[in-house]
Every structure is written in C-alpha cells, then in structure tokens.
C-alpha cells in the first residue's frame, strides 16, 4: 500500500490538474489509481499524448507501445474495480530499455543486425516491473551495443538532450533519461556498467540509482549463456525517475528475488539507522582531473544542504578511486575482447571508434594485457573494496561528482583519442564505483549555463536506503524543475 503522506508534491491529489497527468509522480499516479480518483487509462493516455507531442523532438522512445499500453491500462482498471490485490505500481506508465528483453518485443541494442530479435520472455527487471502492475508505454534508445555515453545508433537514430540538442543525453540509458525528463513516463528502467544510469540522469536533470551489485537481478542475455566476469561483477539494473521517492519505490519493486542472476542476493532494503552524527566524505578529485566550476558549485551546494540537515560533511582524500578508475579499463575492456569481433562486424562507426579509442587509452597504462595482469587486477579490486569498506566505517556516505564536467557535446567521445581520453577521465566517479560495486545515486542540484548540474552520493554496500535519504534532502533544496519541454525547436 502506498502511503499518501509520501506523495512527492505535498498537495492533495484533488488539487492537482488531472489534465496533465503526465506531470504526476509515479507514487501519485499509483495512489490515485488504486483509490479510484483517476483511471490507469487516463494516466496512460496522458503519457501517450505527451509522447506524441515531444518524442519526435528528442527521439527518446524508439518503440511506442500505444495499443498494448491501453489494453494493459484497461485490465488494470478492471482489477481495481474487482477489488483484486494490486501491486505498488499498479496502472503506472513505465518505459523499458531496448537492450533488455521484454516478451513480444525486439531487443535491438541499437544494432541493425538485431532488429528482428524478438524476445520470448521478460528479463528479470521487466518481469518484476510487470508483476508490480506497471503499464509499459515505450522502449528507450541506447547507443549501438550500449557502450557509449551518448545514445545514437544507425538503427534508431540519435536521442537528444531536452536541455540542449548539441549535448549528449547520456548513455547508455540516454533514451530513458530524456523520456523521463520530458514527461513521457515517470519511471524508466536502465542498466549500468560504468555510468549508464547515473550519467544520463545527470545529463537530463533527473535522478537515477545504481544499486549494489547483487541487489537487482540483471537482464543481460548472451548468445552462449555464459556471462563474463565484468557482467557478473559490474553490471546492475536500476530505475531512473524525476524524484527520489519514485526512485525508492521503483527500486523496491525491481529488487525482488530472481534465481537467474548468479550474484543476486535477497537482502532487506532498509538497515539499521546510521549512528549520529553522520559523517559524509566529500571527494572532489582523487588525482584524476579537477572538476569544472559548475561541478564544484554543485558539490558545495549539496554539502551545505546536508550540513544544514545535521550531517557532518568533511573533505577527504581517497586516491583508491583513481586506481579503481584505471582498473575499470583493464578488467572491463579485457572482458569485451570477445565482443569486439561482433562490434567490428555489426556495430556502427560510433561504437567501433569509441571502443577502439578506449583500448588505445587503456594501453597507455596497461600495455598488452596478459592473464597475469588480469588476475592481478581482480586481486587488487578486492583489496580496494576492503579499503573503501574500512574507510566507510567512519564515513558511511560519500559525496562525489557524477562527472568532472557537465554533459559533453554530442559525439565528442569519437572525435579523437585525446577527446575520448579527456571524457573518460571526467567520468572517473562513475567508472570507479562500477568497478567496486557500491551503490550510488545521481541527484540534480541546479541548472548552470543552461545545463543540469548535480552530484553523486555513494553508500555502503546494500545500504541504498541511506543514500536515498541523503538524496531526498538535497532534492528538497534543489533549484531545478522537471518535467520540461524540450528547450529547442
């Protein structure tokens, strides 16, 4: 049952404009549907109308499921009238990602050669969202093979950032973030191996959470069925939403147990309260690259909000993050070597150039990768995790940039090896956390120079509740409003 006191707007539902249900939060919609103040059909039709209005401008959803969504909405409304048991997101519109299996729909991963790959079953995250009562309204765009921080490909075209079309909406969940930011759905499903949830959320001015590895069963589906270590140890599913309350709600749904993930753990979503006063470690740069002024300002604002709420924010030095960032290159890119022939054959130019430049940057540190280097790298990863866990005994929450700069220009990652290296360095906060497996949330703070700015909050493993709490404090003071109309013609 959804608590009406948890509604994000703070207003009674009767005071809200039902002509613009696409503006409502998922919690508001779910509560109003179950209490018969609105119907699921009304909510879905509102989102479909919004999709029709703005999706042609940003190309966030590359498959719109209008007919199926309306059928599902009608079934949701019949369940309400019959008094059946309802899921926590009953009747609420949600978008899924085209690299994730949804029964009866194509899992293209942005690849022309995969355009006929119709899924026969739901992947775990989609299955759990469906069981919670959601209505799927569309499938969101990704880069080819989901391996860039932009979201364009030869099959579906380019997704645009609604704040500025010359800037990336992020990747690989860029379509998801752009759709949520524009009001096409209050929640979207994403996945993250090096920032693919957190960076799009940051670039589009919304929230996104990368849970602890093992918290949410993944939706990765490989031809031979054997996931490499990087997929087992670094990929996780998670939601994107316009507010933290919806993020918390969606995470609770997606965290349901599923035996098909080799590292999934059925761990409670709430732990023991942290000891007061809660110390927060503020890390601006572990020695990789200094954050730009807008990022520094966002960190300062977030630190002030947390201090005002009773947290104790202190600047810290954690060089292990710089080491983890470089280890991401060694371990993830080595595991992608098996995928490299397929990317060369089926990927678009962006996918090929980006990965080629990634490897060239990696070789500057690691040279040619040997089995010994790979084994030593994984051993070192464990040592870094232990070191961070010990540090977080004193600082259970860390405040970091999401990226060292604001959303970069479209396709800047494939201009040259140097531009790729610069952008990869700016993303150290996301890549290091992905390597170490800790939970992290991206939360916006303000708009600077016409683009969203925000911060990343990191918590102890399986303590997503603590970072969601901190993110809600920042959100309550943030000077940014979504959903937005695309700010271009």
From TrEMBL:
It comes from the Bacteria. Residues 42-468 form the Amidase domain. It holds the Pfam family Amidase. Belongs to the amidase family. PANTHER family: GLUTAMYL-TRNA(GLN) AMIDOTRANSFERASE SUBUNIT A, MITOCHONDRIAL, TRANSAMIDASE. This is Amidase family protein. It comes from Heyndrickxia faecalis. The lineage of its organism: Bacteria, Bacillati, Bacillota, Bacilli, Bacillales.
């Amino acid at each position: 049952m959804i608590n009406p006191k948890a509604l994000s707007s703070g207003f009674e539902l009767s005071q809200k404009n039902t002509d613009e249900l696409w503006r409502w939060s998922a919690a508001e919609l779910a509560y109003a549907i179950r209490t018969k103040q609105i119907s699921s059909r009304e909510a879905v039709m509102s989102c479909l109308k919004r999709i029709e209005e703005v999706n042609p401008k940003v190309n966030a959803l590359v498959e719109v499921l209008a007919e199926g969504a309306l059928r599902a909405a009608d079934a949701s409304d019949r369940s309400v009238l019959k008094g059946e048991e309802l899921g926590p997101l009953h009747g609420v519109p949600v978008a899924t990602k085209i690299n994730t299996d949804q029964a009866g729909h194509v899992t293209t991963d942005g690849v022309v050669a995969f355009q006929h790959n119709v899924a026969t079953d739901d992947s775990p995250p989609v299955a759990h969202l469906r069981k919670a009562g959601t209505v799927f309204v569309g499938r969101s765009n990704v880069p080819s093979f989901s391996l860039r921080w932009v979201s364009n490909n030869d099959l579906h075209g380019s997704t645009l950032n609604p704040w500025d079309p010359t800037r990336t909406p992020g990747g690989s969940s860029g379509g998801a973030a752009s759709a949520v930011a524009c009001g096409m759905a209050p929640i979207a499903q994403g996945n993250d191996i090096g920032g693919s949830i957190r960076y799009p959320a940051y670039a589009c001015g919304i929230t996104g959470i990368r849970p602890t590895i093992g918290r949410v069963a993944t939706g990765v589906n490989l031809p031979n069925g054997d996931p490499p270590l990087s997929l087992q140890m670094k990929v996780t599913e998670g939601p994107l939403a316009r507010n933290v309350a919806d993020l918390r709600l969606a995470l609770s749904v997606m965290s349901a147990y599923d035996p098909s993930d080799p590292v999934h753990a059925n761990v409670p979503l709430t732990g023991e309260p942290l000891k007061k006063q809660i110390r927060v470690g503020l890390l601006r740069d572990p020695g990789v690259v200094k954050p730009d002024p807008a990022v520094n300002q966002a960190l300062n604002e977030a630190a002030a909000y947390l201090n005002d709420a009773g947290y104790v924010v202190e600047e810290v030095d954690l060089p292990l993050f710089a080491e983890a960032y470089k280890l991401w290159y060694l371990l993830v890119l080595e595991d992608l070597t098996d995928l490299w022939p397929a990317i060369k054959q089926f990927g678009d130019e962006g996918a090929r150039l980006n990965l080629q430049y990634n490897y060239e940057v990696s070789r500057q540190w690691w040279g040619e990768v040997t089995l010994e280097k790979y084994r030593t790298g994984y051993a070192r990863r464990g040592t870094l995790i232990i070191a961070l866990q010990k540090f977080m005994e004193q600082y259970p929450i860390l405040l970091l940039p999401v990226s060292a700069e604001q959303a970069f220009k479209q396709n800047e990652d494939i201009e040259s090896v140097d531009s790729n290296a610069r952008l990869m360095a700016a993303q150290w906060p996301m890549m290091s956390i992905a390597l170490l497996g800790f939970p992290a949330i991206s939360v916006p703070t303000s708009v600077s120079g016409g683009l969203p700015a925000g911060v990343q909050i990191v918590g102890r493993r399986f303590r997503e509740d603590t970072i969601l709490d901190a993110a809600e404090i920042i959100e309550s003071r943030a000077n940014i409003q979504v959903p937005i109309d695309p700010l271009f013609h």
